[in-house]
User: Which sequence fits this backbone?
């Protein structure tokens, strides 16, 4: 099935006869495989008499050899899958199994992708980047301070390098263009956070997505922002290269060294917001972040800091003020 998909991935027409000859099967068998492909991946395939078959849109499929070559400098082990429940869950499984670290898990699609606070992460086949990096962390919680914010910086830098000039951050873990979400970060820990533990850095980036009826918030993609199809392998390689640099500096200097850089890319800096914490809400003005990545708000003329996994930030409109 993967071979057939790669033959069609250019988005051009291919005759059933040519496909059958390349695969060593009959034209009728090609048709059956194409039907199966549509069912398994959700990809739309067009059939035109006299021209053959083509995908509704070209695809950028993961190339394991290219990824391993492109990521070799970081000495990270690459695991790539056609379909998986969650790249974060698979990375955790590989850590528990004792696989060599650092390691990256990538997938063409996720069947149980998730974001912060247990939300579903929509994962259409071969359109976006579903990426998890597993690391061994020594030295306790200090090594994790501001880590998710630092990862967001690496994502934004990669996006800008690839033409998404207006990409910016929203505390704590979202990457936006304007008010539309482009990417998200989810960190999960296992082990002893006071000593030696493992962290899985999950990153989801909308790369070539054109439509998604399941997404329950405003969104955009790299393709929609740049106007052209993106190479998902290059996105993964560039992201990893930026992460490698930022993580090394974070280990040496901590998040405080990146505080000003992070605030310069924070789209909601100086804006009125509502911070949601469970059933409670707090109105304030965003001042930035502290040296460990906690949010600083001006609340009723007092500066307060907030951190934690269950916090969520919302912009307040002029009418709300």
Assistant:
């Amino acid at each position: 099935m993967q071979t057939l998909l790669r033959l069609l991935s250019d988005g051009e027409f291919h005759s059933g006869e040519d496909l059958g000859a390349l695969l060593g099967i009959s034209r009728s068998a090609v048709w059956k495989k194409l039907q199966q492909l549509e069912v398994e991946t959700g990809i739309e395939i067009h059939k035109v008499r006299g021209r053959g078959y083509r995908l509704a849109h070209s695809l950028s499929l993961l190339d394991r050899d290219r990824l391993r070559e492109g990521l070799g400098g970081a000495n990270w082990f690459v695991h790539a899958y056609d379909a998986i429940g969650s790249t974060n869950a698979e990375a955790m499984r590989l850590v528990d199994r004792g696989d060599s670290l650092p390691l990256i898990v990538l997938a063409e699609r996720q069947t149980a992708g998730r974001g912060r606070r247990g939300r579903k992460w929509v994962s259409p086949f071969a359109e976006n980047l579903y990426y998890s990096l597993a690391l061994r962390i020594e030295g306790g919680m200090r090594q994790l301070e501001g880590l998710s914010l630092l990862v967001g910086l690496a994502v934004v830098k990669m996006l800008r390098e690839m033409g998404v000039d207006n990409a910016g951050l929203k505390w704590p873990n979202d990457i936006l263009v304007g008010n539309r979400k482009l990417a998200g970060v989810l960190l999960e820990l296992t082990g002893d956070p006071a000593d030696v533990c493992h962290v899985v850095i999950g990153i989801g980036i909308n790369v070539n997505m054109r439509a998604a009826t399941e997404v329950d918030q405003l969104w955009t993609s790299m393709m929609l922002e740049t106007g052209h199809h993106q190479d998902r392998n290059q996105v993964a390689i560039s992201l990893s290269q930026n992460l490698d640099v930022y993580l090394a500096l974070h280990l040496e200097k901590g998040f405080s060294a990146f505080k000003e850089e992070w605030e310069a890319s924070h789209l909601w800096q100086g804006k009125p917001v509502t911070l949601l914490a469970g059933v409670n809400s707090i109105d304030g003005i965003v001042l930035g972040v502290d040296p460990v990545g906690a949010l600083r708000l001006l609340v009723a003329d007092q500066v307060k800091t907030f951190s934690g996994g269950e916090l969520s930030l919302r912009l307040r409109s002029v009418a709300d003020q």
About this structure: The chain has three domains: 2-55, 64-264, 272-320. The chain has a mean pLDDT of 91. The radius of gyration is 22 Å. The chain has nine helices and 14 strands.
